[in-house]
Amino acid sequence: MDYKKTNAPLNTVTRDMMKLSANTGNIYETTMIISKRANQVAVEMKHDLEKKLQEFASYNDSLEEVFENREQIEISRYYEKLPKATLIAAQEYEDNKLYFKNPAKDKGGF
Questions:
Q1: What is the rounded distance in angstroms from the CA atom of residue 17 to the CA atom of residue 47?
Q2: What is the pLDDT of residues 21-30, one digit of tens each?
Q3: Is 31 among the domain residues?
Q4: Less crowded by CB within 10 Å, the N or C end of the chain?
């Protein structure tokens, strides 16, 4: 996922939950869809960050002071400035970029 190209806001946004839940008809189901997607995005972002920082890792067992690399700091700052996973997921939901289905509804369970 390219995090630069997302149009998610960087700050918290108040949203009308009734408008958000128009697709599902259920506020709680909408919240669960967004939260599950936010978890997926957060895991993906964490994996990408760890992969990039792994290049700078040193594996010596000395107790000497750990020197931080400028590239490590810049990479960390970049990821700190990105929108939070919940904001990315909510924006994807608003833009109808998420595919979701409820197996219980498909079976006629409700």
A1: 31
A2: 888 888 999 9
A3: no
A4: C
For position 47, what pLDDT does the model report? Answer: 93
- Residue 78, domain extent: 40-57+65-97
Round to whole Å and give the CA distance between 41 and 44.
5
Residues 6+ apart with CB under 8 A from 6: 83, 88, 91
The predicted model scores a pTM of 0.78
| 82 belongs to a structural domain | yes
CA angle 23, 31, 103 (to 5 degrees): 65
Q: What is the pLDDT of residues 83-96, one digit of tens each?
A: 999 999 999 999 98
Residue 12 lies in a domain: no
> How many domains would you assign to the chain?
1
